[in-house]
Structure formats: C-alpha cells, structure tokens
Design a protein that fits this description.
Keywords: Signal. This protein is of the alpha+beta class. The chain has one domain. Helices cover 33% and strands 24% of the residues. It has 5 helices and 9 strands. It has helices at residues 2-22, 34-47, 63-74, 111-116, 161-174, and strands at 23-27, 50-55, 85-86, 97-103, 131-140, 143-153, 186-188, 196-199, 203-204. The chain has a 6-stranded mixed beta sheet with strand order 1-6-5-4-2-3. Strands 7-8-9 form a 3-stranded antiparallel beta sheet, with helices on one face. A hairpin with a 2-residue loop joins β5 and β6. The longest helix is centred in the first third of the chain and has 21 residues, at 2-22. Residues 1-20, 182-187, 189-194 and 199-205 have low confidence and may be disordered.
Length: 205
C-alpha cells in the first residue's frame, strides 16, 4: 500500500514538473516598480476598456481573431480594468495605454521596441518549429510600463488549450509584486522621455 502511495506521489510530481516545463514566463525590466505598474494599470482601467494589439501571425486563424480572442480571455482578469479590453481604438478609454502582444519576435527585442513598433517600423520575427515566444507589454504610447517574455510549446491554432494558459500566465506575471519595491509614488522617469507623474490623489498626468 505504501509503495503504491509513493508511486502515485512520484507520478503526480513528475506530471506537474512536465506541465510546468511547457510554459515559462519572466518579467522584462522596464524601470517601473511593481507597485507603480499596478497604479498605472488602475488609472488606465478607470478611463474605459484598454486597447489590445497583436503583432505576428503564428496561428492559422490570423491576427484579427488572435487579438479578438486574447481580448476576451484577458478581459475578466484584472479588477483594475472593469471594462476589460478592446481591439477597437475608438472604443478604448485612453488609447495611448495599450497591451501589445508580439508573437515570435527576435530574441533581442526590447519592451520599448514592442511599444514603438508600427507599420513603418515593424518588428522582426523568428518563428521556431518547436517553441513559441510571446512578448506581452503594457505601454503608454511608446513607453513600456510592464512587460513579460514567455516561451511555450509551439501552437498552430487558437483552439489549443495551451493558448489560454500562455496568455493568463503572462498577464498575471506582468504585475507581480517586486520584492525591491518600496511602494513609493512620485516621478517615474524613462529614457528617453516622456515622464509619468503618479499622484496618490489625482492619478497620472
């Protein structure tokens, strides 16, 4: 009996370790502390739905459907964003704040590069057959506020249940507590400018 129990525990641990190897998510530095990231998210969420944009086309359903499904999956996640996400800039409460999801960018891509990318300045991509990369960045215009890099097993369709897991793990990690964060507000300086001022009463201006 005890041997069977030990075998079951060992098997369960092995299954968990295998599952954990499927997706890895790490924060990418933006120069903004965890407490301040959450403050900016809360301010943006008070203005209305937050704009969500996708670059790269790793799924057969295409970029538009990838963005639409991502917005639906992430909309219930953050209490700070009660109206969720939208893919329509005209429906966004403050379109300068946006979540950008870059699939399979080259490894040297920075959070700022994801925020500043556009039609005339597109990202470069590196699609691998066995692994999938996601760079999720919360931007204010061209300034990155929060960012994570994620790696997962390659998926070719949005119907793969691992797609939802990839998004949820990445989005949760973006605003995870920073052990070095003092929780202080004030001026968040970025290089290059602009500067974002956090005010405990007024929000951001």
């Amino acid at each position: 009996m005890f041997r069977s129990l030990k075998r079951m525990i060992a098997l369960s641990a092995l299954m968990l370790s295998v599952a954990a190897c499927g997706t890895s998510v790490t924060q990418a530095p933006t120069g903004v502390s965890g407490q301040s990231k959450a403050r900016v998210l809360a301010f943006a969420g008070k203005q209305g739905p937050i704009l969500l944009q996708v670059s790269g086309e790793p799924f057969r359903e295409g970029k538009a459907e990838t963005a639409a499904l991502s917005a639906r999956i992430l909309s219930p996640l953050y209490p700070e964003v009660p109206q969720g996400f939208t893919v329509n800039p005209q429906q966004a409460g403050a379109p300068q704040f946006r979540f950008r999801l870059a699939f399979d960018p080259i490894a040297s891509t920075s959070p700022g590069r994801v925020c500043s990318a556009g039609t005339s300045n597109p990202l470069s991509y590196d699609r691998r057959p066995s692994r999938q990369a996601l760079f999720m960045v919360f931007c204010r215009a061209d300034v990155p506020i929060a960012a994570v890099k994620a790696l997962s097993d390659r998926m070719n369709t949005l119907q793969d249940p691992k797609f939802r897991d990839l998004l949820m793990q990445s989005a949760r990690q973006m605003f995870a507590a920073d052990p070095n964060d003092t929780g202080s507000l004030g001026i968040l300086e970025f290089d290059p400018k602009p500067r974002i001022k956090l005010n405990p009463l007024e929000g951001i201006f």
